Amino acid sequence: MIENSIVYRNFRGKYEYLPISKAQGSEIWDKDGKRYIDFTSAWNVTNLGWNNLEVNEAVIQQAKKNVQGLLWGSDPIQEEYAKALTSALPKSLDACVKETGGTESVETAIKIARTYTGRKKIIGFKNSYHGQLFASVALGYSPNSVEKLSPLVPEIIQIDFPHEDVGEEGFDKFISDLENLLSKEDIAAVVTEPGIITGWGSTVVAYPGFLKKVKELTQKYGTLLIVDEVGTGFSRTGKLFGIEHEDVVPDMIVLAKGISNGASAIGTVVGQSVIFEKAFSDAILVSTFGWTPIACAAALKTLQIHRRDKVWEMAKKKGEYILEKLKPFVGKAITSLRGKGMEIGIRFKNPETCSEVRKKSFENGLHVVVGGNDNMQIMPPLTISQKLLDKGLETLIESIRK
Ligand SMILES: Cc1ncc(COP(=O)(O)O)c(C=O)c1O
């Protein structure tokens, strides 16, 4: 099957194999011409709809000028994008690193934190996802599940993520445990998504005030806060960036996925220039394909559309609508519904029900993914029309009812 072809991850039946022949907006067609309404956005990538015409056109125009950058030089579109991106973020995040995707950017942020602070230890959260390399895997995977890959990067400590249902007492304990760790003043950085886990497939929302508290404590003890917005960035959770929910300014923010709407591979770490200047004089941090001019053209147009159309408002409104439509099934097939904006988790009463709902939805032309065993992660393009959203929800609800 894979001879002269591609090796695909064994998704153990969690995902359907979908050979795409065409994709537009919130619709995908397979090789036999069957149409699917998309509730995945390629896992938080095509937030503005598949093959957004304006973004793709920006790529075409840039391809007529120049497609490759230099490690030791710049193209005007790279500079223009850096200005546009930093002006969309809090003022202190004033410098960007050129990267190719999420994993590379997370790894670079960790390198910067170690180099800048002179400390080795990094804190991550159990059952979170930050990418595929040895440090990013070490942040969130349980060590037993990746034993064959080990040794991973040492000195990465995993702690429990304080879910919204831990209660006040549970949250207080989380804070005091975290403070205990940080007070030794040997932790370089804490790495977390901004209050919702989008990468692991569990769609777990944090206890209110989580990010604010983590920021307060990291700042107190000289630890850097790295917020991974690879999944939450670019309007997904109802704000342009997830950090806006609690008005937190981290030391570094990591962006990828929705950054170019899927038109080209790109990622970045945005942070304080004083931190970057020190780190970059002590460590070699370069990427041949980081921020190619075509990727920057796609990313610039993507950012302009998000800001021009206030796409986060669409995410907020439609996210609330989805939750409202699914609420009547909580306590029946669904045990819990969680989410922010159009990043929604449906937890089913057992993995079998979840898998059955996915299968039926797929048969009936709805493209959905199962993250955790019993959790379906709903992430439609934020620009989905009301008509397609309703049709998709109708298909999903029919599959839940059966
Ligand atoms: C939160 C988060 N961080 C990092 C990554 C890694 O990004 P990439 O697949 O672009 O390397 C992902 C990918 O799913 C993610 O969801």
UniProtKB/TrEMBL annotation:
Q: What residue range is the signal peptide?
A: none
The answer to whether keyword ATP-binding applies is no
Q: Which CDD domains match?
A: OAT_like (cd00610)
At the top level of its lineage, which domain of life is listed? Bacteria
Q: Which InterPro entries match?
A: Aminotrans_3, Aminotrans_3_PPA_site, Class-III_PLP-dep_AT, PyrdxlP-dep_Trfase, PyrdxlP-dep_Trfase_major, PyrdxlP-dep_Trfase_small
What are the recorded GO MF terms, alphabetically?
identical protein binding; pyridoxal phosphate binding; transaminase activity
**Record keywords, A-Z:** Pyridoxal phosphate
- Report the cofactors: pyridoxal 5'-phosphate
PROSITE patterns reported for this sequence: AA_TRANSFER_CLASS_3
Question: Does the record's keyword annotation contain rRNA-binding?
Answer: no
Query: Which family is this protein grouped under?
Result: Belongs to the class-III pyridoxal-phosphate-dependent aminotransferase family.
Q: Return the protein name.
A: Aminotransferase class III
Organism, as annotated = Candidatus Nealsonbacteria bacterium RIFOXYB1_FULL_40_15
